Amino acid sequence: MSDAVTPAPTARRPGGAPSSPLADAWRRLRRRPDTIAAAVVLAFFGLMAAFPTLFTTTSPRTCPIREARTTPQGWGGEHPLGTDALGCDVLATLVHGIRPSLLLAVVVVSVSLLIGVTLGLLAGYHLGWVDYLVSRAVEVFLVIPLLLAALLVLSLFKGVDLGTGTFNVILLPAVVLILFGWMPYARYVRASTLEAKNLDYVTAARSLGASDLRIMVRHVLPNAIGTVTALLPTSVAGVISAEAVLSFLGIGVRPPATSWGIQIEQGSEWVLGGAPHILLAPLICLVATVLALVVLGDALRDALDPRLSA
Amino acid sequence: MTESRPAGAGLVDERPEPGESVLEVRDLVKHYPVRSGLLRRSAAAVKAVDGVSLTLDRGRTLGLVGESGSGKSTLARVLVGVETPTSGQVLVDGEDVTGRSRAGRKQLRRDVQMVFQDPYTSLNPRMSVNEIVGEPFAIHGIDPAGGRRAAVGELLELVGLDPDHANRYPHQFSGGQRQRVGIARALALRPKILVCDEPVSALDVSVQGQVINLLEDLQEELGLSYLFVAHDLGVVRHIAHDVAVMYLGRIVEQGPEAEVYDAAQHPYTQALLSAVPVPDPSVRLVPAGGAVGASSSDGAVAGAGQPGVGGIVLEGDPPSPVDPPSGCPFHTRCWLAPTLPEARREAASADAVRGLRLIPQVCETDVPALVARGSADAGAAGAAAHVAACHFARELATPGTGA
């Protein structure tokens, strides 16, 4: 070939040495200090959820009422973060409440993501009656108020004893929140699928004879999922606070189990009553978790997108 | 399917036998229903391709030209199997592939592959070049001798890229290099036919030449046949052996490249050719003075109807393919029809208030057949005859390709 061109020197690394995309992603991830900090925060909370006894020896269920609303005594005191309105240790409640909160958030977000992405992808890709069914279902679920639906589920499961394991404790709120939480994902994914499926590289794959499944999974989804990943960290926060509302109705995490949502709910009554620490302790932890997820989610998206590589 | 087809190696033995048709299209029709109303009843149809027949010989290039909306891209998409035709037949190597099952169509796709217009959207940005070029193997379950990686390397070398760059992503390449990646992907299954949908119109002129030369080299090396869709008449003249001109979903003129370019018979082809910029400042493109300034459309058309004086300027947009004009689809914009003696005669005799444009009745009522006209073509044995779909093609004077 007489006109063979030498490729432009676009790559930073000499010679284009083979390297796996995952290794590249890790290299880029490591270079960002905010990512490291976010990872440390999440690891810390993860450890707390897994081994709560490492962080406190006090039981969250011993609540001497005469010690109610003790102000934080600092590290080394009997109640490092003070006590709440009933005299329970705030630190102990915080440490023991993280497991149901995080588990609920992870379960709800991942299951509704799975449902939403699947339905949205199918609707956007196939259109026709599939799209009609999915779109109408989305609209129906969007117009039903969450609390009304929660009351319905509550009445359905009123007499059912679900046991006291961590997973059983969060089962009811998880069902309600998944049932009414998958629609945004479906809508976003459907919209981006509509956009992505008409691009030339999808036509190219089709002209090569690729199956619908292959086109959806390999070509459409990776390029349509971007908008949804930005939604995930905030959804986690939304789930944790929504759980608090459900607890108020009696279908959230049931006592004696505790959660951050319940703690925030109860603490908010005493912000102006001289005991803001009851609210602030779980709130700061929640904000830290969500921020860490946002930062990590951003970094992950950048790292996995070859166009944004450094 | 574990058949091993090493890419790039041993391809040369399939030398083309001239004159043998590898692709034949018979009366191909592609209509898109326009749905309206509450019940989504199909009220009308966009007649994107409306009865196209053409033949592509082995090792030859057929250029397909026409303005936007003429249906050339739809035709290309039907040929590669992305769209299913409403009616008509597509024969690859003499076998009809339109009525095939899914598996049969998959085989067709190995024989007919496509090169896309925009190298920036035709490559998945999240896949490395290795994955992109290797995807045909994965889809068809082919394990080439020496492994897929080696086969991809050979393909990249074939199109003039460095095989060491297989791990890069599309955004790390220039437009011309991306187009080479797209060509490598199309060649992976060793197709017989490449459908090139405006493969160079998104590239710089300097790069266009390189890609065109690459396509010509590949044709010689691999015995490929090209259906080359373009609106750039200069590029088509360079690469094509035969040319077909499309207007509103139909072929209006077809023939060997030299004859179509030098002795265009259809008024639409002549108008297209006169719009090609001539790199010579002494050639004037705009018709002189009075014609443009004339008040009625009659005047403008009449003024433009002198090929050779300047460019032929067609008025208005192409009519909607939902409701194409009766008779000859081009009669609403034809610069020739109002100048014909038949038109004048009818104007004098019949109702004089029939409309602004007076054209021969036959243009409005009868669809002209795509037949050979004039004198010279009759004896051209074997080679594609020069045909045009115009009632008055034989009466055309020397075509208006510039001064």
Structure description:
- Residues 1-18 of chain A have low confidence and may be disordered.
- Chain A has a single domain (22-70, 77-308), classed as MetI-like (MetI-like fold).
- In chain A, 64% of the residues lie in helices and 0% in strands.
- Chain A has 310 residues and is mainly α.
- Chain B is of the alpha/beta class.
- Chain B has two domains: 21-240, P-loop containing nucleotide triphosphate hydrolases (Rossmann fold, 3-Layer(aba) Sandwich), CATH 3.40.50.300; 264-395, no CATH class.
- Helix content of chain B is 30%, strand content 19%.
- In chain B, the strands form two sheets. Chain B has an eight-stranded mixed sheet, sandwiched between helices. Chain B has a four-stranded antiparallel sheet with strand order 2-1-4-5.
- In chain B, helix 3 packs parallel to helix 5, helix 4 crosses helix 5 and helix 5 (175-187) runs parallel beside helix 6 (205-222).
- Chain B starts with 20 loop residues before the first strand and ends in a 15-residue tail after the last strand.
- Classes of the chains: A mainly alpha (310), B alpha/beta (403).
- The interface between A and B is large, with 36 and 47 residues.
Number of strands of chain B: 12
Radius of gyration of chain A, CA atoms, in whole angstroms: 24 Å
The CATH topology of chain A is given as MetI-like fold
Broad structural category of chain A: mainly alpha
> On the 0-100 scale, what is the average pLDDT of chain B?
77
Whole-number tally of structural domains of chain B = 2
Which CATH class of chain A applies here? Answer: Mainly Alpha
Beta strand % of chain B: 15-25%
Q: Main beta sheet of chain A: strand number and arrangement?
A: none
Distance between the termini of chain B: 59 Å
CATH architecture of chain A, please? Orthogonal Bundle
- Work out the largest interface and the residue count of each chain: A-B, 36 and 47 residues
Return the average pLDDT of chain A rounded to an integer. 80
What's the order of the H and E elements of chain A?
HHHHHHHHHHHHH
Rg of chain B, nearest Å: 23 Å
The total count of helices of chain A amounts to 13
CATH topology of the largest domain in chain B: Rossmann fold
Helix content of chain B: 25-40%
